[in-house]
Write a structure and sequence with these properties.
Length: 296
């Protein structure tokens, strides 16, 4: 497995594969991340999306599986696909059998709170979501040209150990502008990183041609509800009150540009056979807090 973009999901999945005796490599942006991952037995290559070193393709083509987890750049979209002819040429002479692009449920845009499936036409509202959709189409087209199993996984809001409502509360940092916008939504589809790994593993075991899957849990709950539950877990576990002032929410009248929708995961369950470890944020947050050291 070669992982283009060894971030939160890519790194988590790489460690899972390493434990299962896969040969795993990938890219990251910083020396510190490279050193951290090398301590875990993963060989990483430094790679900047702004100024890619295309010599990397000589390495990538030797791998049988390729996971793409680099987000589009605001100026020109997917940084890898901007040299798609070179990529097609290099990979067509290599060992690639399986290709997966990690996308986002933001491509659906606004459906007024209705449930959406993979059959609903995307209607992205933000520039980043439009670039995501273009990247999906680009990778599916490339996979088709190469004749390899190609999937797009549309991920909901990603959380897991070190990246959750619990961690945000404990850090006591003010919400960012994007977080405040999300806070105003009635519904937020999310998914635990463990379940993303399950979906990735299932898509390897059940290769397909140009398939798209929504990877989300069963409970598209509002952010406010999730934070309230996270607060209760913290107070119950460590018998400590924490200041919640930084986590005030906007009026619900402030609609998010990402739009209101509830994202269905039936395709993931029926086609990939994924049984969620964390069907709701509740079990996901509980598993996180149970494994945490006392932060106080």
């Amino acid at each position: 497995m070669f992982v283009l973009g060894m971030g939160f999901v890519g790194g988590f999945f790489a460690e899972k594969l390493k434990e299962a005796d896969w040969v795993v490599s990938g890219t990251c942006r910083s020396d510190s991340k490279k050193k951290d991952m090398e301590k875990k037995g993963l060989d990483l290559h430094l790679f900047s999306a702004d100024s890619p070193e295309w010599r990397l393709l000589e390495t990538v083509k030797d791998y049988t599986h390729l996971l793409v987890s680099i987000p589009p750049l605001a100026d020109f979209g997917d940084p890898i696909l901007r040299n798609v002819e070179l990529i097609r040429d290099k990979l067509s002479s290599g060992n690639l059998q399986w290709l997966c692009y990690l996308s986002s449920t933001s491509v659906y845009g606004d459906y007024g709170g209705a449930w959406v499936t993979e059959d609903h036409p995307p209607n992205p509202k933000t520039q980043s979501a439009k670039l995501r959709l273009a990247a999906e189409e680009g990778w599916l087209s490339l996979g088709s040209d190469l004749g390899v199993s190609t999937q797009v996984l549309r991920l909901g809001g990603i959380y897991g150990p070190g990246r959750s409502a619990i961690d945000t509360l404990l850090k006591q940092q003010h919400l960012s502008e994007s977080q405040l916008r999300r806070a105003s939504r009635r519904f937020t589809s999310r998914v635990h990183v463990e379940d993303i790994c399950q979906a990735l593993q299932a898509s390897i075991e059940k290769p397909s041609s140009s398939k798209i899957y929504n990877i989300v849990d069963d409970d598209p709950a509002p952010r406010e509800e999730v934070f309230q539950y996270a607060l209760e877990l913290i107070e119950k576990r460590w018998k400590r009150k924490i200041e919640t002032k930084p986590f005030l929410y906007e009026s619900r009248e402030e609609s998010s540009l990402r739009g209101e929708k509830r994202v269905s995961n039936q395709h993931m369950k029926n086609k990939l056979g994924v049984e969620l470890l964390h069907p709701s944020y509740k079990s996901g947050l509980q598993s996180i807090v149970e494994k945490m050291d006392n932060p106080f």
